[in-house]
Amino acid sequence: MEKLVTHAGIAAPLDRDNVDTDAIIPKQFLRAISRTGFGPFCFDEWRYLDRGELGMDLDSRQLNPNFILNQLRFRDSSILLAGANFGCGSSREHAPWALKEYGFRVLIAPSFADIFYNNCFKNGLLPIRLPRDTMRQLINECMTQVGYRLVVDLERQCITTPSGNEIPFEIDTFRRHCLMNGLDDIGLTLQHREEIIAFERRRLAGRPWLTYNLQD
Question: Quick one: 165 and 201 in the same domain?
Fold first, then answer.
């Protein structure tokens, strides 16, 4: 998993509460069996005027001009400013996969659905919770300032706005450690690789009928 220590990027406002995971990545795309390829279909039913399906030629589809992320100034955004209860609905892990592949690394909202919040950390996304009044200020500034760029410092737990205003945020120490070191569940397990191999050797020695090869 890619490390995230500091991130600077253009912010985009999605000023809606209760954005569910079916809006983030609609159900018809869940037939794919890999963890990649979902980015082009992120917010598909809002981004396009037609219904999307797997295998469609995206270049032939018509963008919805009224959807905020389709505005030219937000197309390269990597920080999403969202409303309360972002990521509610089903527990599909495809939602953070789609958001990350679309280009987002940081999500900032007043609150997140619990399972979605946990899935973000497991997939290299940083979800930050801020008070509603602070979010309203950020969204208003983002809407009125072209090229609104935020700097997110995970080590200092601080967001810096274009005016130099610093906004602190809270994050669980363990999750912070994992993001800063690029550790997902597999990475955490591999930190104990030598102990795992030693255990398997002892186990194989005591049960020789369990024949398999150990990867040193």
Answer: no
Q: Quick one: pLDDT at residue 214?
A: 60
Q: What is the pLDDT of residue 185?
A: 72
Rounded CA gap, 42 and 55, in Å? Answer: 15
Question: Which percentage of the chain shows pLDDT scores above 90?
Answer: 74
* Residues 155, 71 within the same domain: yes
* Amino acid 34: pLDDT: 79
What 3 state SS string does the chain have? Answer: CCCCCEEEEEEEEECCCCCEHHHHCCHHHCCCCCCCCCHHHCCHHHHECCCCCCCCCHHHCCECCCCHHHCHHHCCCCEEEECCCECECCCCCHHHHHHHHHCCCEEEECCECHHHHHHHHHCCCEEEECCHHHHHHHHHHHHHCCCCEEEEECCCCEEECCCCCEEECCCCHHHHHHHHCCCCHHHHHHCCHHHHHHHHHHHHHHCCCCCCCCCC
Look up the domain containing 114 and give its range: 6-171
